[in-house]
Amino acid sequence: MQNADFSRNLLQWYQHHKREMPWRGELDPYKIWVSEIMLQQTRVDQATPYFQNFISLFPTVYDLADADQQQVLKAWEGLGYYSRARNLHTAAKTVVEEYNGKVPESYDEIIKLKGIGPYTAAAVTSIAFNAPNAVVDGNVIRVLCRYFGIEDDTRSSKTSRMIQEEADELIDPEHPGDFNQALMELGSEVCTPTNPDCENCPVQAGCIATKMSKTEVIPYKSPAKKKPHHIIGVGIVENEEGQVLIALRPEEAMLGGLWEFPGGKQKEDETISETVERELHEELGVEVKAYKELMSLKHAYSHFSITMHAWFCKLVNGTPSPKESQEIKWVKTEELERYPFPKANKVLTERLINDKN
């Protein structure tokens, strides 16, 4: 199958089988950009309501640039990978200040914006500006590895370059945005990781993996390293007015700009209540007594997982100060929902609010 045939068959299939999405068919480069940032590490069905809410709150790049970071993070709450939101907010300010509010049209310019890498730069410029820049994501990798019979480890940079070169050769120069979306759609809906629907694939005729009956072993990805697991203890400190203490994570840290209940990792030969008491002394400069566990929960991040234990604490000595956070704040329990929290801490806030009611 020649490149032209591949492109024609793929685009014809796409016209009849593409899914409806709120950003599909969108011409506003800002909205396309937001959708592509959200779709990093996130499924379409999960991103859809977040996109609709985000655009209703920040309909233009000017609105996003003018927003307070806490507003942006609150709108992103629950979507995860919060550096995406912080970087998007910073980049929006750059677009307003340096590009007069216009999203850069060229690949070389847009990739300079914070949070935009090769994939996002190619996606936005191809969809919004019709530039022939090929995208390569997990779906594209799977389709092209099977189509060309590439059996090398997809974790290697050499394989990544090979796949990018193949995508650059195949992309339709007249309809690059549709081509990129079609290729990703094909990987998502037909050329799936397991049990691909080869009979209904528009490019099956040229697919080497299909001919060799290797669709179950291509693409090959070497095993990932085992994720570490941490035991975390956090403290719920109440004052005489019934307020609880929350801390703002450092801007440069993981989950930066989000609020949390102070705490940290358990050390060897330490009970979880001792962990809470030690961590609050280190983070707030106070002595507390962890006297009752509220709940424990498990949560998985991209590179590690945790079991978090939340303990009610009594303030024994000292005045809390933000030694390891940007800011601390005493907040009424019913006001906790106003603040953006990481997912695990969000579960705690909801439990505290429900217990009060």
UniProtKB/TrEMBL annotation:
Pfam entry (one): HHH
GO terms classed as biological process: base-excision repair; mismatch repair
Binding site for 8-oxo-dGTP: R249, E260, F261, P262, G263, N345
Residues covered by the Nudix hydrolase domain: 227-354
Keyword Lipid metabolism included in the entry's annotation: no
Top enzyme category: hydrolase
Annotated Mg(2+) binding sites: G263, E283
Keywords tagged on the record: 4Fe-4S, DNA damage, DNA repair, DNA-binding, Glycosidase, Hydrolase, Iron, Iron-sulfur, Magnesium, Metal-binding
EC number in record: 3.2.2.31
Cofactor(s) the protein requires to work: Mg(2+); [4Fe-4S] cluster
Reactions it catalyzes: Hydrolyzes free adenine bases from 7,8-dihydro-8-oxoguanine:adenine mismatched double-stranded DNA, leaving an apurinic site
Single annotated GO MF: 8-oxo-7,8-dihydroguanosine triphosphate pyrophosphatase activity
PROSITE patterns from the UniProt entry: NUDIX, NUDIX_BOX
InterPro entries referenced in this protein's UniProt entry, alphabetically: A/G_AdeGlyc_MutY, DNA_glycosylase, Endonuclease3_FeS-loop_motif, HhH-GPD_domain, HhH_base_excis_C, HhH_motif, MIG/MutY, Mutator_MutT
Family: Belongs to the Nth/MutY family.
Function in brief: Base excision repair (BER) glycosylase that initiates repair of A:oxoG to C:G by removing the inappropriately paired adenine base from the DNA backbone, generating an abasic site product. 8-oxoguanine (oxoG) is a genotoxic DNA lesion resulting from oxidation of guanine; this residue is misread by replicative DNA polymerases, that insert adenine instead of cytosine opposite the oxidized damaged base. Shows a powerful dicrimination of A versus C, since it does not cleave cytosine in oxoG:C pairs.
Name of the protein described by the UniProt record: Adenine DNA glycosylase
